Amino acid sequence: MQLLTNRMWDEPVTENPVVGTKEIWNLINTTNDTHPIHVHLVEFQILQRRPYDVNYYNRTGKIRFTGPPKRPAANERGFKDTVRATPGHITSIIARFGPYTGQYVWHCHMLEHEDHDMMRPYRVISKKK
Ligand SMILES: [Cu+2]
């Protein structure tokens, strides 16, 4: 089964961005498929895709890059709600989370994937006082 963050849909939230702040999310694709990853609520920009050693990562949990970062194509440089996470790459996106707090989802947009179980909740939380 292909999962996000190695977790099932109904497991506790693991991503908790603070409203109004920016986060970079690194999508580490360990599969042989391209996954169109869709994040609800926000529009994001694609920073780069960088090839890495998938086998080494699967063995050790550590990142070893195998080449330089690649900039997104011209048609990918605007604000997006979905990004292709290509195999063998870490795809980095940046988003400002808001304007609302609450619970949203992010998921692979391939129906067979999102249904089994490539969909995760995330929560935009209030500013810490
Ligand atoms: Cu997928």
Q: What does the model show?
A:
The protein has 129 residues and is mainly β. It has one domain (22-123): Immunoglobulin-like, CATH 2.60.40. The chain is 9% helix and 35% strand. It has helices at residues 54-60, 111-114; strands at 22-28, 35-39, 44-51, 82-85, 89-96, 102-108, 119-124. The protein binds copper (II) ion. The site of copper (II) ion has 7 residues, from loops.
Mean pLDDT: 95
| Fraction of residues in β-strands | 25-35%
Major sheet: 4 strands, antiparallel
Structural class: mainly beta
> How many strand elements?
7
Q: DSSP helix count? A: 2
In terms of quaternary structure, the protein is: single chain
Whole-number total of structural domains: 1
Say which molecules are bound, naming each kind only once: copper (II) ion
- Distance linking N and C termini: 40 Å
Shape: globular
**CATH architecture verdict:** Sandwich
Order of helices and strands, N to C?
Answer: EEEHEEEHE
* Strand neighbour order, sheet with most strands: 4-2-6-7
Based on CA atoms alone, the radius of gyration comes out at 15 Å
The helical percent reads under 10%
Output the CATH class name: Mainly Beta
Notable traits:
single chain; 129 residues; mainly beta; Immunoglobulin-like; four-stranded antiparallel β-sheet; three-stranded antiparallel β-sheet; 9% helix; globular; binds copper (II) ion
